[in-house]
Each structure stands twice: as structure tokens, then as C-alpha cells.
Amino acid sequence: MIGRLNHVAIAVSDMEAATAIYRDTLGAEISDKVAQPDHGVSTVFINLPNTKIELLEPLGDASPIAKFLEKNPSGGIHHICYEVDDILAARDKLVAQGGRVLGDGNPKIGAHGKPVLFLHPKDFLGTLTELEQA
Ligand SMILES: CC[C@@H](C(=O)O)C(=O)SCCNC(=O)CCNC(=O)[C@H](O)C(C)(C)COP(=O)(O)OP(=O)(O)OC[C@H]1O[C@@H](n2cnc3c(N)ncnc32)[C@H](O)[C@@H]1OP(=O)(O)O
Ligand SMILES: [Co+2]
């Protein structure tokens, strides 16, 4: 079902400090910061030869990453994102196997303009898992 690793997301409380680490210390090229109001986060992407790193900073009062950052104030790996050829077929198959899709169960448009959905971390080895339509 799953295909390419699209991105690994890291939650951060200070985006400027985080981008400085990737840009200045690790020598990576970073994207502009983009507000994603439908997702309660702001994002910066780091394009690597084989995948991407997504830096996430809370946006608004009800950010889904707020509690994670309370527990991990210096930041941490928040989720991984796999591409799938057919996100609705993947969702239906996972739900039929007892997997929990977060939110209302329907895909939302993600940071790359494609449908995404999230799977509960307790069903996937303690790892919050995002699926993105390829
Ligand atoms: C920019 C758009 C998009 C893209 O295109 O890339 C994005 O990436 S948006 C990214 C942000 N959006 C989301 O994360 C949406 C999905 N997330 C959620 O619905 C919630 O964050 C959550 C996963 C349901 C967690 O909710 P929360 O209220 O923060 O915590 P809970 O108390 O309900 O947590 C229950 C349980 O799960 C553990 N947990 C929580 N978050 C994670 C995590 N990121 N990785 C691993 N485990 C996680 C939490 O510790 C609790 O465990 P126990 O303490 O053992 O009960
Ligand atoms: Co993501």
C-alpha cells in the first residue's frame, strides 16, 4: 500500500531557531515559512535528495501539535508521511483492519496541495502516520 517516504516532520517551538540549525549548521536549503491555517501549523520544508523534512510550528490556539510540544519542549519527531496511490482505498482498507483515521475520517488538502490524512499513533508502533495522495 505505502510508497515513497514523502517527509519526516519535526515539531518545533521556535521556527527561526530551527531553520537556523538546518540552514547554517547542516547546510541545507530551506523553503519559506508558510501558514497552514486549516492544519493549525506553520511549515518550512527542507528538500533532501531522497525525501523532505517538514518543520512544524504551532499556529493558532488549537494547534494539534501544542500538547506534543508541552511534553517535548525542545521539539521532536512528530510524524512520518508516506505516499499512497489511492488515499481513499488506503483509508478504507486500514479502517476495515481496525485502524483509526483521525479527524472526521476524510482527507484534507495538505502542504503540497494534495489530499492527506492521519492515522492514530497507537495503531502504528507509537508513530503518528500521515498518508498523502501520490
Ligand atoms: C501541514 C499539513 C500536513 C502536511 O501536509 O504535511 C501536516 O503535516 S499537519 C501536522 C499537524 N496535524 C496533525 O498532527 C493532525 C493529526 N494529529 C492529531 O489529531 C493529534 O495531534 C493526535 C495525534 C490525535 C494527538 O492528539 P493530542 O491531543 O495531542 O494528544 P492525545 O493526548 O490525544 O494523545 C494520545 C496518545 O498519543 C500520543 N501521541 C500524541 N501525539 C503523538 C505523536 N505525534 N507521536 C506519537 N505519539 C503521540 C500521546 O502521547 C498519547 O499517548 P499516552 O500518553 O500514552 O496516552
Ligand atoms: Co506532514
Biggest β-sheet strands, sense, barrel = 8 strands, mixed
Strands, count: 8
Bound compounds, each kind once, are: ligand LP2KCY5N, cobalt (II) ion
Helix content class = 10-25%
Global geometry? globular
Number of helices: 3
Task: Determine Rg (CA atoms, Å).
Answer: 15 Å
- How many individual domains? 1
- For the residues shown, what is the average pLDDT? 98
CATH topology: 2,3-Dihydroxybiphenyl 1,2-Dioxygenase, domain 1
SSE sequence, one letter per element: EHEEEHEHEEE
Based on the coordinates given, report the CATH architecture. Answer: Roll
The class by helix and strand makeup works out as alpha+beta
Spatial arrangement of strands, main beta sheet = 2-3-4-1-5-8-7-6
For the record, what is the CATH homologous superfamily label? 2,3-Dihydroxybiphenyl 1,2-Dioxygenase, domain 1
CATH class, named Alpha Beta
Low-pLDDT stretches = none
Q: What is the terminal-to-terminal distance?
A: 11 Å
Which band does the percent of strand residues land in?
A: 35-45%
Pfam families: Glyoxalase_4
Catalytic activity: (R)-methylmalonyl-CoA = (S)-methylmalonyl-CoA
GO biological process, one term: L-methylmalonyl-CoA metabolic process
Family: Belongs to the methylmalonyl-CoA epimerase family.
